Inverse folding.
């Protein structure tokens, strides 16, 4: 390479460094039809966000995404002290305190991991940074299936040797050691926020089940306190032990993924049925003591892990009050919505096109970011009082007080019209407009 060529490369590298230092990179849009826009990422380019910096007192920052094409677009403004308030004013009331937030995140299934690893390595990094780093959504929750689920290439557990009550044949699979565990280590290295991992089983080994099958209606054999239930409880501990050998510890486990599924005839993929009473007794007599007597006694135990419509009944057997977080499903799927061994295809915030070495960030990716990036763990929901009935104007909203004392308000406008409103706090009034089909996040300091 000649001197001119070397100088050109040096200038290019310098420009790239300046560009990175300058901050956020915009979406590279692609349209599927008139309104369906995604942001395209590849090995050389991906849109990014700036780290969240609190604005000066008396000012605020706003992030907006819309059907019109904005994707977490940042702007700034100042509070007003005018008496000319809009008809609809949302007033922050920090004397009303509700639940504290655990966080937001997504799931690393076999399918998600395979899709991520199908990309060029630099594109893999872009995808993971988009979710976990300060230039992305800053997810802090990660859900992992314990062994296989429908988003696997086949059904398996960690001990498929019949009647191995001592779990002598228990072992992690390649899906763990070559896919999920390496991705977790990369995500942990990228994240400035502590990541809380939690695991959910879809099914026990078939030899523990009344159906003796991965699929269809079936529960654990016997009853709480017997050898089947004790062995299944110890299976959880062995899973945690094996992941600990890879320097990965868990915040929580759930007692079962969708326990109602295993009570349905001909259910098409991995499941294990529990009624609320059965799960209560299994936890009280088997799983709870097994965890408490292990080196994982600090771990949280989550019940239900099912569709929201079941919550009122289950809460009567083990009472819960407020939602404290949200974990999305697959971090990434292919163009078909898989792979999935029972062809139970679904959508995902990120879609991978393996043939092109690219991935698409869908609108829901940015929608999730309006919460995950700005409402860190430890934030507390506070009152947000409307001056009139906001249901009449199709506006939805929520407010949080962050651990650093800043206020976050998220406003969603599902309607096809722009809506004018005000945000009031002790520091003044924000005169705002929520565009049609948009979501906004406002952030400001109180003192």
């Amino acid at each position: 390479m000649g001197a001119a060529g070397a100088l050109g490369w040096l200038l290019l590298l310098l420009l790239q460094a300046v560009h990175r230092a300058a901050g956020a990179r915009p979406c590279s849009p692609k349209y599927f039809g008139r309104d369906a826009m995604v942001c395209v990422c590849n090995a050389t380019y991906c849109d990014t966000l700036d780290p969240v910096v609190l604005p000066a007192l008396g000012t605020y920052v706003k992030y907006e995404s819309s059907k019109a094409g904005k994707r977490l677009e940042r702007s700034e403004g100042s509070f007003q002290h005018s008496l000319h308030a809009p008809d609809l004013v949302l007033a922050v009331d920090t004397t009303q305190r509700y639940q504290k937030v655990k966080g937001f995140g997504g799931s690393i299934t076999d399918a998600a991991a395979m899709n991520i690893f199908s990309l060029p390595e630099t594109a893999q990094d872009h995808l993971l940074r988009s979710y976990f780093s300060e230039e992305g959504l800053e997810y802090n929750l990660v859900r992992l299936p314990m062994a296989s689920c429908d988003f696997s290439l086949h059904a398996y557990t960690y001990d498929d040797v019949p009647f191995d009550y001592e779990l002598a044949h228990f072992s992690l699979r390649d899906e763990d050691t070559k896919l999920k565990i390496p991705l977790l280590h990369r995500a942990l290295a990228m994240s400035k926020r502590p990541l809380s991992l939690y695991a959910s089983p879809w099914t026990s080994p078939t030899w523990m089940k009344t159906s003796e099958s991965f699929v269809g209606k079936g529960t654990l054999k016997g009853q709480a306190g017997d050898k089947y239930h004790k062995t299944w409880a110890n299976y959880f501990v062995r899973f945690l032990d094996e992941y600990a050998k890879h320097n990965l510890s868990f915040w929580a486990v759930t007692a079962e993924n969708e326990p109602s599924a295993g009570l349905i005839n001909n259910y098409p993929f991995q499941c294990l049925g529990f009624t609320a009473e059965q799960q209560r007794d299994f936890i009280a007599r088997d799983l709870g003591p097994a965890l408490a007597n292990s080196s994982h006694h600090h771990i949280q135990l989550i019940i239900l892990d099912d569709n929201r419509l079941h919550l009122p009944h289950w809460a009567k057997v083990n009472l819960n009050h407020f939602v404290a977080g949200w974990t999305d499903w697959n971090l990434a799927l292919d163009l078909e919505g898989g792979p999935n061994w029972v062809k139970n295809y679904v959508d995902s915030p990120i879609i991978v096109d393996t043939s092109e070495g690219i991935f698409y960030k869908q609108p829901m990716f940015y929608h999730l970011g309006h919460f995950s990036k700005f409402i860190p763990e430890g934030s507390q929901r506070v009152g947000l009082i409307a001056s009139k009935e906001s249901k009449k104007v199709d506006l939805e909203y929520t407010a949080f007080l962050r651990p650093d004392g800043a206020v976050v308000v998220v406003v969603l406008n599902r309607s096809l019209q722009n809506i004018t409103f005000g945000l009031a706090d002790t520091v003044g009034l924000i005169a705002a407009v929520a565009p049609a089909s948009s979501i906004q996040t406002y952030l400001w300091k109180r003192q």
Notes: The chain has two domains: 52-101+376-447, 103-372. The first helix runs from residue 3 to 22. DSSP finds eight helices and 20 strands in the chain.
